[in-house]
Write a structure and sequence with these properties.
Number of helices: 2
Keywords: Calcium, Disulfide bond, Metal-binding
Oligomer: single chain
Order of helices and strands: EHEEEEEEEEEH
Organism: Cyprinus carpio (Common carp)
Helix content: 10-25%
Protein name: Fucolectin-like
Structural class: mainly beta
InterPro entries: BG_Antigen-Binding_Lectin (IPR051941), FTP1 (IPR006585)
Distance between the termini: 35 Å
Pfam families: F5_F8_type_C_2
Radius of gyration: 21 Å
Shape: elongated
Strand content: 25-35%
Length: about 180
Amino acid sequence: MPLSYLTITENLALKGTAVQSTTFSGCVATKAIDGIRYAPGTAHTYCSHTGYELNPWWRLDLLDYYYIYKVTITNRGDCCLDETTGVEIRIGNSLVNNGNNNPRCGVTSLVPVGSTVSFSCGGMEGRYVNMYIPNWSYLTLCEVEVYGTAKKQVIRVQVKAAENVDEAELKALVLNKVDFLILN
């Protein structure tokens, strides 16, 4: 079935780990991947929040390689629109500059208080999803959701076998060859 007909519903962020450049008042990076978009009240209860700094960033490690089709960001509901304005969403496999040099999926404009915005990333490949503001700012994220599909690796194996090898023997030969390739 062509991918355009698939509905990708699993939020990959819930299975990952998150870190950020600094932490303001106990608002740790993992609060942005806890599955709670935001409820009325203080952002400190529900959101990740960096300190005020030059080039604040937040990074999600998906722990595997994926094709990313959509990234969703939820802003805090009480104030501070500038803390999610101009956020660059970067996706890739590099940790150079903390992952902030990876290819860009999109950039937020003004995200209204308490609202959620989504960006189509067209199947960008990556393990890391970064949020990065290239300026002096705080960075606050109440929820980050990432939707995509696993990147499958195909290993081609050439096995020389006699014509009279049965299926079980052939399977054992292939598995031994794959184990050898993985270990070396």
